[in-house]
Structures are given as C-alpha cells and as structure tokens.
Amino acid sequence: MTEAADFAAFPKLELHLHHEGAAPPEFIRRLAGEKKVDLGGIFDEQGHYAYEDFWHFLKVYEAATEVLKTPEDYARLTTAVLEESAASGVIYTETFLSPDFCGGRDLGAWKEYLHAIREAADRAERDLGITMRGIITCIRHFGPDKARETARCAAETAGDWITGFGIAGDEKAGKPKDFAWSFDMCREAGLQLTAHAGEWGGPQSIKDALDDLKVSRIGHGVRAIEDLELVDRLAEEGIILEVCPGSNVALGIYPNTRCHPIEMLRERGVKVTVSTDDPPFFHSTMAKEYEALHNAFGWDEEVFGQITQTALEAAFCDAATKEKLAKRLETRA
Ligand SMILES: [Zn+2]
C-alpha cells in the first residue's frame, strides 16, 4: 500500500469537511456558466482554485460560494461532493453546513436548503453507500450576532441528521467566549459541539474553545503541540482533534507532512482523526491524505484502523448509525 489509489479501497470516516469548500472546481465553473456569472480570477491556468494565503483563500472561497444560490444548487453540490468522497473510500462524512450561505440565516429558507441537501444525501447513500450528517457552523468573522441567528437555525433543525454545531472562519476574529451563548443554545438543543482552533491561533485558542465553548472536538487543534501541558490535557480529557494535514501544509502552517505534529500528538495519547477540510482547494482527497501519512510516518493498515475507530467513536451520529458503520468497517464493505 503506497499509492493513493491503493488507499482509496480502505473504508474511511471523515469528520471535518466544509460543504462549499469541497465543491469540485469544474462543478463551480459549470454552475457559473449556467448562471452567466464571471468568476475570472479565482482559478489558475490548470482550472484549480487559486489563492495566495489563508485570508485570500477565504475570499476565493466566498467568491466560489457566490454561485451557489438555490436549494437546487445545494442539492447538486451535495451529489458532487459525495461522489468525490465515495470515490476516495469514505463511507461516512460529517459536513459543515452554513445557514449563512444557505438562505441568509432565515429559518424558513434554511429548512428548504436542508430538505434539498438531505434528499441528495439520501440518494447518495442508496447509490454510493456513503452516509452524511450535517454540522451547522457559524462563521466567526461574521460576528457573534449573526452566529446567534445561525445557532437558532441549528437548534430548530437539530435531530438525527443535523447532529452538531461548530464555528469556522477567521480564527483571529473575536474570542470564543463571544460565541458562548450560541454554543450553549445548541448544546441545550441536543447538538454536539466542535470548534476550529489551534490552526492559526496558538495553544491558548484551543484552551479558550474548551473552556468557553465546552466542545468535545477541536477542528485542527494541531498547534497544541506548542504547549505539552495542553497536549496532556487533550489526551486525559479524550478531546478529539479533527486533523487536516494536507490543509495545514497547503496553507503553509507546516512545510510538509513530515513536519506536521499529527504523529507526535498521536504518540502522546491524543485522539487524532484525519480529514481533508476543503479538499479541491488543497489538491487533496482522503486517499491522498492517507498516502501522505503513510509516506511521512509509515502509517499502515493497523494505524489507519485505529484512526478510523477513533473517528467512529467521535462521530456525532446516533448509536444505530455507528453500529451499521462498525459492521461495514469489520467487513470492509
Ligand atoms: Zn475547517
């Protein structure tokens, strides 16, 4: 097992995937063409997304998202994203959905988008054998007031399919405690919680997310490695890290996979999982992430098996869904 193609057959669970960020560029171009929207400047000569750094990446991301307007667009996006994931061996995916982009945080509109996304997801489950669940994310740089509106959409649609709430966007905007009200509301609605931290922010950003938002999972969290006491706390408390090595390398947080702290965190007892974040932006797939980790650290089937078990335990879906997934992992079906 050394090539991405070999790793594609390995059944995978992905916990950290931004729905719009997973949009294949050819899908966005096609949609822009149909709508006669000029997206010039966001693609390079090879047709990939083009950006300079993280903040520019956010701009390109939002520009690409501009063509996704209607529930039908989101249904088509869902199909395109799940096809890509399934081709990489993903049997279960938790995708970040933003009522900010789906209906401007209006609850009635959000329900229409959600209905369209779920229909497409149900179809993909039947046809491709991939199960999807949604985690609603507020966008940090849109501020705490808008986050409250997003949290209301999350709480009102919480259930067996919308199973989590989180926060994404520019980690340097505001503090986690500014968003505590939204997280409290979603916890009371039965949603499980995750927050992006320790990607652009240092160890303190992770401590703040744990203390102020009381999340069970951290999106990224890799910069915990700069504070070994925090690493030990993560291990002791069983906090799950949704690690996206390819994203961190593509955005320049680490120069290459070998320098990425995922292996050190794992060796010190932290529960790490592997995801792609916004795969086409980073020229990544789940199979490529596995290949890179195998090449950098010699991770083999046994290690990937442990990572997958960790992801299964940490998944925000219900027990019946976990049981079904566990059976598929056992039989590698
Ligand atoms: Zn992310």
TrEMBL record:
<keyword id="KW-0862">Zinc</keyword>
<dbReference type="GO" id="GO:0016814">
    <property type="term" value="F:hydrolase activity, acting on carbon-nitrogen (but not peptide) bonds, in cyclic amidines"/>
</dbReference>
<keyword id="KW-0479">Metal-binding</keyword>
<comment type="similarity">
    <text>Belongs to the metallo-dependent hydrolases superfamily. Adenosine and AMP deaminases family.</text>
</comment>
<keyword id="KW-0378">Hydrolase</keyword>
<dbReference type="InterPro" id="IPR001365">
    <property type="entry name" value="A_deaminase_dom"/>
</dbReference>
<feature type="domain" description="Adenosine deaminase">
    <location>
        <begin position="11"/>
        <end position="330"/>
    </location>
</feature>
<dbReference type="InterPro" id="IPR006330">
    <property type="entry name" value="Ado/ade_deaminase"/>
</dbReference>
<dbReference type="Pfam" id="PF00962">
    <property type="entry name" value="A_deaminase"/>
</dbReference>
<dbReference type="GO" id="GO:0019239">
    <property type="term" value="F:deaminase activity"/>
</dbReference>
<dbReference type="GO" id="GO:0046872">
    <property type="term" value="F:metal ion binding"/>
</dbReference>
<protein>
    <submittedName>
        <fullName>Adenosine deaminase</fullName>
    </submittedName>
</protein>
<dbReference type="InterPro" id="IPR032466">
    <property type="entry name" value="Metal_Hydrolase"/>
</dbReference>
